[in-house]
Design a protein that fits this description.
7 strands; 123 residues; 28% helix; Nuclear Transport Factor 2, Chain: A; elongated; single chain; disordered N terminus; seven-stranded antiparallel beta sheet
């Protein structure tokens, strides 16, 4: 289990390393098009890039999010958005509340159709 956590942490760090701001005008057309298609209601978008990816930090419906795109072809990789308890089903809410106080709730959608709800709770 600890190996999996370490691997995930290392992957997350590699996405964060050496990022620099980039303006909308500097983005490849495919990145612009795919971002608009995936997140049409995004506001306050700020772009960053590293050697491999473009990152869009945005707000959608009052919630903060981040989207990740491949640099070479502009294909969407994943989007992470903050969630509220109101975004969950009654059964999901009940299950989470039993586990403790919810500190952070996020939804991670990936291009392989994987949807994950990430939850941080404190007891």
């Amino acid at each position: 289990m600890k190996k999996h956590i370490l691997i995930v942490a290392l992957i997350a760090l590699s996405f964060q390393s050496c990022k620099s701001e980039v303006s909308y005008d500097q983005l490849p057309q495919n990145v612009k098009k795919n971002f608009t298609a995936n997140i049409p209601d995004a506001k306050d978008v700020k772009w960053e890039e590293n050697a491999d990816y473009y990152f869009a930090h945005f707000t959608e419906n009052g919630e903060k999010g981040i989207a990740l795109f491949y640099k070479a072809d502009g294909n969407w990789v994943e989007t992470e958005k903050a969630l509220s308890l109101n975004d969950l089903t009654p059964l999901q809410k009940e299950s989470l509340i039993k586990r403790g106080q919810i500190r952070q709730l996020k939804e991670l959608k990936k291009n392989d159709s994987t949807d994950v709800i990430k939850v941080e709770v404190s007891k």
